[in-house]
Design goal:
The complex is a heterodimer of chains A (330) and B (200). Chain A has 330 residues and is of the alpha/beta class. Chain A has 3 domains: 105 residues, Periplasmic binding protein-like II (D-Maltodextrin-Binding Protein, domain 2), CATH 3.40.190.10; 101 residues, D-Maltodextrin-Binding Protein, domain 2; 75 residues, Immunoglobulins (Immunoglobulin-like, Sandwich). In chain A, 32% of the residues lie in helices and 31% in strands. In chain A, strand 14 and strand 15 form a beta hairpin. Chain A is globular and about 70 Å long. Chain B is mainly α. Classes of the chains: A alpha/beta (330), B mainly alpha (200). Chains A and B meet through loops of A and helix 2 and helix 6 of B.
């Protein structure tokens, strides 16, 4: 009996455990988050942002092909803007949104045995250079930079291998198998102990923007939307910046109305428009004015003492909007 | 109605004709040199940098003119310098297009300037002085660094023009019009870093 009881108890306990386990498994699936297919440059940053998702990292082009063929992804996070746009045009993903930016960099082994000090040094005969294939975003950006600098032919003569991802380039450089490689700046930031950074000039940098999109057939639309919101949130963006990515550019400001359109030095003026929250400067005919951002669509400024009659210019990191002529009253 | 004397008309025509002749000859020199033989890769690299530098100069002068914070006499020189830099851009871009490639155009590079650069005449002139010193050093460096002899005369002509700009800004800021017998040449790395300082 005791044994029976004991056995019965064991059976009941096991059943209860199984039921609980099943509930836990369901709960675990719910909490496990979504399945994200992401470019390999996202390998470090995304788990930092949410460790409960299932991630599949790889070349953007390969991931896109897998999604097209029905792979069970909820969100595609590409290392460019063209891939998601192309899948959107085919109805495979929802409308893409940009989520971060990056810059191209050259890395050399920490000890830098080839003595490379500048990107121009990569043209020296005999160097061993690694890059990603041009079918991979980082590889196409590499070719863009080298063309912009007029170095493509000379540098390609030194390329000994073409990889399927930036992660593979980083590995070969860190192990000293090559003298230099082209990667993203974010690749260097996560492994500075084994790499030395050689800057790619800003004037030659391509505009590297990443975009993401929810897969149209995803059964987890709501969770996928929550993930997109998390990535774009200030906290999410801060993690990207910490890992070497660039913040998203705010949209260019526009000015709908300046009220009043005339006034004396010291007068308070209101600007109505769009995208005003990231404003970095307000000037009247080039003379800087003290300003206060009230909302995305409204800011105020004080007419400076040295102001002159002229257009009001509102600037943010993405561009400048100018108004009709503001007339200074004496 | 504004009247004009025959002497003034002849003078204007001569200046206009000379400008066209110089611009035409420099541009055609570069295009022909680039198209005649395959240029060494290092020359194309230099040409790309010069294109970037000329885009910076044109962008700066266009913004300085738009700011309208200078006296008419200074404005006249800003406009002249702007026109010169645009002609220089056309010429050095001709090296790239002559070699069958596509040169960078305005909008390909986002430039940024120190805060307040366009806020006063003094700040505009000081930036122009620094810019022109850099442009001069870049072209003197390019003359030494580029291997194609057929390009060197045109580059020297542009360097001479940048030296004139530099002398004007030195003078108007109250400094020495000129001083060094041999203004320094910038290496391609130094010139690239100088350009980078004003790129967003």
């Amino acid at each position: 009996m005791t044994i029976r009881s004991s056995t019965l108890f064991t059976v009941i306990a096991l059943c209860a455990f199984a039921v609980a386990g099943s509930a836990a498994a369901k709960s675990s699936r719910a909490l496990a988050g979504i399945t994200v297919f992401a470019g390999s440059s996202m390998t470090t940053v995304l788990p930092e942002l949410d460790s409960s998702n299932t991630y599949s990292f790889g070349s953007t082009g390969t991931l896109a092909a897998q999604i097209t063929n029905g792979a069970p992804a909820d969100v595609l996070m590409a290392a460019n803007t063209t891939t998601a746009a192309s899948l959107y045009a085919s109805g495979i993903v929802e409308k893409p949104v940009n989520y971060t930016r990056n810059t191209l960099a050259v890395v050399v082994p920490k000890a830098n045995p080839a003595g490379i000090k500048s990107i121009y040094d990569l043209t020296k005969p005999g160097l061993k250079i690694d890059e990603a294939a041009s079918s991979v975003p980082v590889g196409s950006y590499t070719v863009q930079v080298l063309n912009q600098m007029g170095l493509n032919a000379a540098v390609q003569a030194n390329v000994v291998s073409q990889e399927t991802s930036d992660a593979n380039v980083v590995s070969k450089v860190a192990l000293g198998q090559v003298d230099a490689g082209f990667v993203y700046l974010s690749d260097y930031v996560i492994d500075p102990a084994h790499l030395t950074l050689i800057k790619v000039p800003a004037w030659a940098q391509p505009k590297i923007t990443y975009s993401m999109a929810i897969v149209t057939k995803s059964p987890n639309q709501k969770a996928a939307q929550a993930w997109i919101a998390k990535v774009l949130s200030p906290a999410g963006q801060a993690i990207f910046v910490k890992d070497g990515f660039l913040p998203l550019r705010s949209p260019v400001p526009t000015i709908a109305k300046v009220t009043p359109l005339k006034g004396k030095a010291g007068a308070k003026v209101t600007v109505a428009g769009t995208n005003l929250s990231g404003t970095t400067s307000v000037t009247i005919k080039g003379v800087p004015a003290k300003f206060t951002v009230v909302s995305k669509t409204k800011l105020t400024f004080v007419v400076p003492a040295k102001a002159k009659t002229g257009t009001v210019a509102v600037t943010n990191p993405s561009g400048t909007a100018t108004s009709a002529v503001f007339r200074l009253l004496r | 109605m504004t009247s004009i004397t025959r002497a003034q008309l002849l003078s204007r025509s001569a200046r206009g004709g000379a400008a066209l002749l110089v611009a035409g000859s420099a541009l055609s020199q570069f295009v022909e040199a680039a198209a005649a033989d395959p240029l060494p890769g290092s020359d194309l690299a230099y040409a790309r940098l010069l294109v970037g530098a000329e885009l910076l100069a044109s962008d700066f002068y266009s913004q300085a003119i738009a700011a309208a914070n200078t006296k008419p006499t200074v404005m006249k020189y800003l406009k002249r310098a702007y026109a010169n830099e645009q002609e220089h851009y056309q010429s050095v871009a001709g090296i790239i297009s002559g070699a069958g490639q596509t040169p960078a155009v305005s909008g390909d590079i986002d430039f940024s300037y120190p805060k307040g650069t366009f806020g006063s005449e003094k700040s505009i002139l000081e930036f122009a002085q620094t810019l022109e010193g850099t442009m001069l050093g870049t072209y003197v460096g390019a003359i030494g660094g580029m291997q194609t002899n057929a390009l060197k005369t045109g580059l020297a002509q542009i360097a001479a023009c940048e030296a004139q700009h530099s002398a004007y800004f030195n003078t108007v800021l109250g400094g020495r019009t000129f001083s060094l017998a041999f203004p320094p040449a910038l290496t391609i790395d130094q010139a690239s870093n100088a350009l980078d300082a004003y790129t967003a």
